[in-house]
Batch of 2 targets.
Target 1
Amino acid sequence: MAIIDRFAATCNLASPIRRIIQTKMVPLMIAFVVLTSCLFSISTVFFRYEFYGYECQTDQPIAANILYVVQTGLMQPIIMLIFVLLTYRNIRRSRRRVVSLYTYVVFEMQELSVCIGRSK
C-alpha cells in the first residue's frame, strides 16, 4: 500500500490518481486491501487442506506450492517493481518540468535585462 501511496503522491496535481491519497479514500483503500487478501487466500478452497494433529496437509501439494510461489514470490515483487518504476518516471518528469520552467524564466530574465540595457 505504501508504494501505491508514493506513486500517487508523485503523480501530476491534475491526475485523478492523486485522489487515492485523500483522507476520505482511506476506507476504500482498506476495503481494497482486505479484498486482495481474501483473493490470495482463496486457494485453500481449491486445495482442501486437512489438519492432522499439528500438521496441515493438502491433497495436491505440488499445485499448492506452485500457487504459493507465484503469489508471494512472483506477483508481489513484480507489482512492487512496476510501481517503483512508475514512481521513478513521475519524479523524472517533474524534474524535467522544473528544469524547463527554470530555463524559461532565466531566458526571459536575460531578454529583459538586454531590453533594459538597450533603453538606457
Target 2
Amino acid sequence: MNETLKVLVVEDSRDDAELVLLELKRAGYAVASARVASGEGMKAALAGGTWDLVLSDYRMPGFSGIDALRILEATGLELPFVLVSGAIGEEEAVAAMKAGAHGFVAKHNLSRLGLVVERELKDAKARKARRQAEEELARNLVALAADHTVIIVTHSPVLLSVCRNSVVLDRTKILTAGPTPEVLARVFPHQAGGPRPVLAASKAEAS
C-alpha cells in the first residue's frame, strides 16, 4: 500500500492508540495520525486536517464514541468511522452501528482491524462515487429543466438537495417516492405558452 493513511484516533489511552496504529502498520498501511480524547480536540483536528479514517474508543472520561460520531456527522465529512473498544457489549455495538458507525473491532481482537479498515475505505470510496454521480445527474436534469418539464422520482437526498437549490426550480417538479435511491426521470418538452410545472414539496416538507 503506497499512499499514507491519515487516521484520527479518538482515544484517551496513549498505549491503546499505539497498539491500534501498530496493527494498521502490520496490515500494510503507512500511517500518519493524531490522537484526541475530547470533543473540542476532535473538532479542532477535523477542522485543521485532512483525514481518511476515524478510529474511536467507545468509553472515555467525559466523552464517548457516540459523541465522537455525532461531531463527525455535524461536519458533513464522509469519513469511515470505526469503533475500537474493549468496553462495549453486543447490544451497544449494534446500537452504535444503527446510529451511524461503519464498523466495530474489539480491542482484544485487533487482528481484524486491517480487514475492517480495508472494507470501510472501499465502501467510503463507493459512497463518494455514488454521491458524485447523483450530483452530476441532478445538474444535468436541472439544465434540462430550463426548456423541459422534468419529473424526478427519487429517494436520494443528494439529488433532491441539488435540484431544490437550483435557480430553475419554478420549472422543475420533484416527487419523492420509494425506499431506494434509484432515480427515474422523464423529460417532456414545454408547450409554448403553457403553464410552468409547480414545485411539489416532499413528504417530509408537507408534513
